[in-house]
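Case study B.
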Amino acid sequence: MKLTEAELPKPLISVVVPAYNEEAVLNAFHTRMSALFEQLPGYRWEIIFVNDGSTDQTQRIINELCTRDRRVASVNLSRNFGKEIAMTAGFDHAKGDAVVVIDADLQDPPELIREFVSEWENGFDIVYATRTHRDGESWLKKATASVFYKVMDRLSGKVKIPRDTGDFRLMSRRSVEALLQLREQHRFMKGLFAWVGFPSKAIKYRRDPRAAGETKFNYWKLWNFALEGITSFTIAPLKFATYLGLLTSSLAFLYGLWIIGKTLILGQDVPGYPSLMVTMLFLGGIQLFFIGVLGEYLGRIFGETKQRPLYFVQGYTPAGSAGSSHLTIDTHTTGNAQHCRHQTT
Ligand code: UDP
Ligand code: MG
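Model:
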């Protein structure tokens, strides 16, 4: 017997929400998402909150939401692993035909998901939101972000990382499956999203200021994030070292010829102390700098070779457990397997 259109199961869309100390916004977030779901009755929804080792009431609020709303699922990580890994944990637990990633702080307007979904229906695998404005962000953050995207654009070669695009996006099941095969420790998600490819579509939007709470990314974290992006995606700094080395040694060779010529023609010359010092210090500085660059790569290789699981889960409540808090599965899920395993203890 063939099912008619109306009888076919509705597609499931998973919304992955990494949350680190977001007690101030979670309820507002849930209210706004629920309003959105009402507007898209043709789909089934699940919201997967990933508590990334919050030290405030975040998990308690998530638990409350789980008991109130069948669509809410909770993944409680064993400590703070950072947004990139929290998102990965969310992807691992998402069951949807499409998966949306969104920040908990309402900086990404949930209403945009309507457009994501319609582009997905049009056949795009990845629909991402590109910011036209960044309200509530300082000029320094905007300026550094702009430099970062320019550098990445130059360095990343074939993989084009879209400008001014955060993690807020919808991904089809097949693109999520592809993404989940990339299990590297150093997860620069913007790069990984771009790396998997598939037909993609950008949607322009205005990034709102945070609804409440504070940003978790200070400049030091952002700098490390940029470094991670560059070193995990390109070996351009190493190549640069090679060429700079070639250039300085050619210059040194020419300078040597010049000194020899001068000594032969003009006779013995007392070598200049200042030029010696300048050359030594300059070369010493360059060498130290590039040993540092090598170290950045070596450190990352070290991290990868340990092959540790990406994360541990200390509690997982799947969607559909509303009203039955005892259903919480106490898992030791590791983020190592391509599809995570749950061992009920
Ligand atoms: N976040 C996380 N783990 C962290 C830091 C941040 O899961 O270690 C989450 C955070 O709860 C929020 C999202 O990542 O949902 C974006 O963080 P934030 O708003 O602080 O970054 P910004 O928008 O300022 O770049
Ligand atoms: Mg934010």
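The pocket of uridine-5'-diphosphate (ligand 1) is lined by residues 18-20, 22, 52, 80, 82-83, 86, 103-105, 107, 215-217 (CB under 6 Å). The remaining cases will be described in the next quarterly update.
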